[in-house]
């Protein structure tokens, strides 16, 4: 009986230690799509688009209240729902994907509240220019995926930035507003 009790205590101790360790999640490319909203002719309309290819990892340690994010967005995968405009956005007049094929977000500063991440401050690189950017984590949920038989965590996150600060000022001379709003739907699979 003492051996059984000691074994159970040991198992509980290992389980508790495992929960306290950082957990790595690989972004699921089939469920991760950064999207954006941007002005067209100073309020005439708002154009919306998304990027169809994203990769990266997120490491979370809820008990310690720490985390990191390392994400790369394939800029060639832009889809704004208009083929001709997609080509324009890939050109050297806008994103210049031949020279800058990726945008990245890297963070070592994830803020937690009540055991859940609520924001991430990091460095956003777009068009070869890097500036600080803070993501607001609007929602965050983990669940046991019945098909994958693994834990999956998902989020809706948002941020705002001035695209002209990154050297993507096309349309500014026509009065386009430079503020861009990011909406990021992402899911990560526990590794």
From TrEMBL:
**TM segment ranges:** none
**What SUPFAM superfamilies does the record tag this protein with?**
YceI-like (SSF101874)
Q: Does the keyword Signal apply?
A: yes
- Spell out the PANTHER family in the cross-references: PERIPLASMIC PROTEIN, PROTEIN YCEI
Highest rank taxon of the organism: Bacteria
* Organism of this sequence: Bordetella genomosp. 10
List keywords of the entry alphabetically: Signal
Write down what this protein is called. Answer: Polyisoprenoid-binding protein
Q: Does the keyword Signal apply?
A: yes
Q: Which InterPro entries match?
A: Lipid/polyisoprenoid-bd_YceI, TTHA0802/YceI-like_sf
Q: Where is the Lipid/polyisoprenoid-binding YceI-like domain?
A: 24-189
Signal peptide residue numbers: 1-20
């Amino acid at each position: 009986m003492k051996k059984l009790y000691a074994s159970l205590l040991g198992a509980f101790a290992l389980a508790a230690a495992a929960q306290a360790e950082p957990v790595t999640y690989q972004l699921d490319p089939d469920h991760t799509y950064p999207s954006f909203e941007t002005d067209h002719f100073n309020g005439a309309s708002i154009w919306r688009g998304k990027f169809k290819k994203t990769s990266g990892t997120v490491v979370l340690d809820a008990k310690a209240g720490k985390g990191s994010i390392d994400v790369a967005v394939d800029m060639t995968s832009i889809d704004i729902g208009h083929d001709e405009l997609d080509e324009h956005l890939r050109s050297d007049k806008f994103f210049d994907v031949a020279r800058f094929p990726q945008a990245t977000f890297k963070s070592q500063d994830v803020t937690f509240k009540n055991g859940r991440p609520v924001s991430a401050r990091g460095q956003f690189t777009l068009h070869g220019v890097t500036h600080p950017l803070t993501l607001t984590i609007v929602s965050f949920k983990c669940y046991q995926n019945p098909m994958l038989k693994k834990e999956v965590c998902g989020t809706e996150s948002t941020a705002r930035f001035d695209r002209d600060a990154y050297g993507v000022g096309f349309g500014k001379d026509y009065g386009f507003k430079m503020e861009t709003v990011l909406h990021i739907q992402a899911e990560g699979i526990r590794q």
